[in-house]
Amino acid sequence: MDKIILHSDLNNFYASVECKHNPILAKKPLAVCGDPELRHGIVLAKNYLAKAYGIKTGDVIWEARQKCPDLNIVTANFPEYLKYSKLVHQIYEQYTDKIESFGIDECWLDVTASKKLFGDGKTIAKTLKQRIKDELGLTVSIGISWNKIYAKLGSDMKKPDAITEISRDNYKKLIFSLPAKELLYVGRATQEKLSKLGIKTIGDIVSFGRNQLISMLGKWGDYLWIFASGNDKSPVCMKGNEPIVKSVGNSTTTIRDLKNEDDIKMIIIVLAESVASRLREQGLKGKVISLCLQDINMLSWNKQIQIKQPTFLSKVIIETAMNLFRFYSFKKPIRNISLTVSDLSYVQKKANQLNLFTDENSLEKTQSLEITIDHIRERFGHSSISRASIIQDQELTELDPKEENVIHPYSYF
Q1: 163 — phi, psi (to 5°)?
Q2: Please, are residues 280 and 368 in contact by the beta-carbon 8 Å criterion?
Q3: What is the mean pLDDT of the chain?
Q4: CATH for the 247-404 domain, from 3.30.1490.100, 3.90.660.10, 3.40.930.10, 2.40.50.320
Q5: How far apart are CA 265 and CA 323, in angstroms?
Q6: Among 50, 63, 135, 48, which Cα is nearest to 92's?
Q7: Helix, strand or coil, per DSSP, at residue 55
Q8: N or C: which end of the chain has fewer CB within 10 A?
Q9: What is the per-residue pLDDT for 238?
């Protein structure tokens, strides 16, 4: 018997919470931005009225205002969004104990065992949608299917405030004509690889053939075929077992052995930039920085340190990671590096207390520079701007770990 899996996606979540607190904003174009002092006013979310003006996530305020002079701007309040996310989860918990978060505003629910108590998947989805609207003043789009990947596609199909069921009878009609990029985990890099193979739609992924995809893309080709064909059998993990976001990190296996400090530093720079950018996107800072090295014999070495002030700056992460690296004694060349920032906290609007030796002006300039680089890369691609220190070996450093980093459903692997 097929499972009944829902994917619930809160519509325009940040903007919806702001409208809940200030209902007047619901009838006006609205953009939720990072604190201008922290993210230069980059748009993090927008409502549908703002979207109609062409405003996009990643626009800076002046661009957004050019598109919509009457745009209303509010500063993101991450702790408040987290509070509402927890309230929504309390509703979910009354219908199932199998709840797996996928970000602050999305999650999967396995309601297979709840059918006898609360009705079929569509009935439960309607109940959840109405309760969230009545009790919290938020709207949600819900996808229903027998697997997590298709349920996610369903929630994306109709927005806002909608339910879409993808069944064994209609999945080919609804899904196979969608662009390949709509499939979960097909990012820019993967899309380019598929395009070179002549694969444009999700149906093309399936018809290309599982073995052929494996031969062309390796293990990842197998995952793509499983996801596209509806054969994903990953369970929704039990409530309480899903991972809370405790760290942000990236790793890479390099195309050649790393034999000296210059090699190591180039890769640390690339990884640190991706980690710092992801921290800023999520409004997070971290105090613990960890470095893990693996040599050609698969022997691992790792070390971590807690810094005095939480950070989301690549400059700080790079300097700290390089200080950690100096405790390592080269015996064999390195082939894999992992860099992680943990002990996370949300960015506060008020300034952090600085220690006696902090150069506040230098910190602000670094922050301003890195945010500008984020924006350039969002607009023109990762390779549009690079540090001079890594272009001495472009073959080694020609990777975009932020874009290529794939976050799978927790229980898939």
Answers
A1: -130, 130
A2: no
A3: 84
A4: 3.30.1490.100
A5: 11
A6: 135
A7: coil
A8: N
A9: 76
Question: What is this structure's pTM?
Answer: 0.67
Q: What residue ranges do the domains of the chain occupy? A: 1-172, 176-229, 247-404
The two tokens of residue 15 are: 């903007």
Q: Which two tokens stand for residue 14?
A: 């940040």
CA 86 distance to own-chain centroid: 19
Q: Which one-letter DSSP state was computed for residue 30?
A: E
Backbone angles phi, psi at 102, to 5 degrees: -135, 70
* The CATH number fitting domain 1-172, selected from 2.40.50.140, 3.30.70.270, 3.40.50.300, 3.30.300.20: 3.30.70.270
Range 176-229: architecture per CATH: Orthogonal Bundle (1.10)
Which two tokens mark 189? 């890099």
pLDDT: which is higher, 209 or 390: 209
Residue with token string 């939480």: 310
Give CA–CA dist 272/341, Å, rounded: 9
Task: Confirm whether 106 is a catalytic residue.
Answer: yes
Judge whether 176-229 and 247-404 match in fold: no
What tens digit of pLDDT does each residue of 271-282 get?
998 898 888 877
Catalytic-labelled residue, pool 18, 100, 106, 378: 106
Amino acid at 386: S
pLDDT per position as a tens digit, 2-49 = 999 999 999 999 999 999 999 999 899 999 987 655 444 678 889 999
- Count of CB atoms within 10 A of residue 9's CB? 21
Give me the half-sphere count of Cα atoms (radius 13 Å) on the Cβ side of residue 397: 25
Q: Is the CB of residue 342 less than 8 Å from the CB of residue 290? A: yes
3-state SS, residue 56? coil
Question: Is a pLDDT exceeding 80 seen at residue 63?
Answer: yes
* pLDDT tens by residue, 121-151: 999 999 999 999 999 999 999 999 999 999 9
Q: How confident is the model at residue 384 (pLDDT cuts 50, 70, 90)?
A: low
